[in-house]
Amino acid sequence: RGFRCLHGVDGSAGMLERARSTGLYQQLRLCVLGREPLPAPAEHYDAVTVVGALGEGQVPSSVLPELLRVTKPGGFLCLTTRSNPSNLRYKAELEAALGQLQRSGAWQKLLAQEVEYWERATSEEESTQGTGYISGVVYIYQKCPVPHLEEG
């Protein structure tokens, strides 16, 4: 899709090694999202994605301002979370934080799309209507440009 320079972060050295083995990334760094700042300058990336990490007991929703910090004005953020029963409280907190940032003018929501068969369920209780899968949501936001101050 036109993105050629991919950087990645993960809190696990083992996952970084797996990512390195793909040959897709130009840079991989150890970083625990939500506990430390991202290893990138402000307004550095055209797009930031977080897939499979925004969930109960993983990356806190308080990481959102840090994701915005490293995204260029007009850049995109693609975030995902699961909709299984054990993640519903987290999902509600995440959506409240997403909405607050939109109301403050930090970004604009472009998409919030439910995905019925997001990933395989690990238990029958987590399965969506007995399908063996759990559902999830993909959110796409665009960071708002910084308004220009009029001279005079």
Automatic annotation (TrEMBL):
<dbReference type="InterPro" id="IPR029063">
    <property type="entry name" value="SAM-dependent_MTases_sf"/>
</dbReference>
<dbReference type="InterPro" id="IPR013216">
    <property type="entry name" value="Methyltransf_11"/>
</dbReference>
<protein>
    <submittedName>
        <fullName>MET27 protein</fullName>
    </submittedName>
</protein>
<dbReference type="GO" id="GO:0008757">
    <property type="term" value="F:S-adenosylmethionine-dependent methyltransferase activity"/>
</dbReference>
<dbReference type="Pfam" id="PF08241">
    <property type="entry name" value="Methyltransf_11"/>
</dbReference>
<feature type="domain" description="Methyltransferase type 11">
    <location>
        <begin position="6"/>
        <end position="78"/>
    </location>
</feature>
